[in-house]
From TrEMBL:
<feature type="region of interest" description="Disordered">
    <location>
        <begin position="92"/>
        <end position="149"/>
    </location>
</feature>
<dbReference type="Pfam" id="PF07500">
    <property type="entry name" value="TFIIS_M"/>
</dbReference>
<feature type="domain" description="TFIIS central">
    <location>
        <begin position="16"/>
        <end position="110"/>
    </location>
</feature>
<protein>
    <recommendedName>
        <fullName>TFIIS central domain-containing protein</fullName>
    </recommendedName>
</protein>
<dbReference type="GO" id="GO:0006351">
    <property type="term" value="P:DNA-templated transcription"/>
</dbReference>
<dbReference type="InterPro" id="IPR036575">
    <property type="entry name" value="TFIIS_cen_dom_sf"/>
</dbReference>
<feature type="compositionally biased region" description="Basic and acidic residues">
    <location>
        <begin position="115"/>
        <end position="126"/>
    </location>
</feature>
<dbReference type="InterPro" id="IPR003618">
    <property type="entry name" value="TFIIS_cen_dom"/>
</dbReference>
Length: 149
């Protein structure tokens, strides 16, 4: 199975990160490859290649945390292979998950018309002695612009 050997070798390099693949990374890569072959019934299927690609990208992509967890045994190969079914967010680092959550919240706020930015502080106008909103005049139903008689 030349395809499986190539995938295993590539996964080993991904697990090693910037380092040189070791016996441990080679072993982990072989186990992951075997699990994927068992899952898909062979190494020549498109689904096998897609899952192997997903795992390799997850291990390569600024995710030293996941590589370290796999190398230290905090995450085993079976768990990693099963994470594919959960989608790309399952592989994301904690930092990426926080960014994704913030983006999702910002999009929700924008869709609901909420301002995601904090209100501007008041500033003192030179010469008038009073405070004015730094953002400028307000426009809306509570402003003096509309006459509701």
């Amino acid at each position: 199975m030349a395809g499986a050997e190539a995938v295993s070798s590539y996964l080993s390099k991904c697990i090693a990160g910037d380092g040189t693949p070791s016996a441990t990374t080679n072993e982990s890569a072989s186990r992951i490859t075997s699990l994927l072959i068992d899952k898909h019934g062979g190494d020549q299927t498109d689904a096998f290649r897609a899952d192997a690609r997903s795992i390799s990208l997850a291990l390569k992509k600024d995710n030293a945390e996941l590589r370290e967890q796999l190398s230290s045994g905090q995450v085993d190969e079976a768990t990693l292979a099963a994470m594919i079914n959960e989608g790309p967010s399952a592989f994301a680092s904690k930092l990426q998950q926080a960014k994704d959550e913030q983006t999702e919240q910002d999009n929700l706020d924008a869709a609901l018309g909420r301002d995601a930015v904090e209100p501007q502080p008041l500033r003192e106008e030179a010469g008038e002695g009073g405070l004015k909103d730094a953002a400028g005049p307000r426009v809306g139903p509570n402003s003096e612009q509309f006459d509701y008689r």
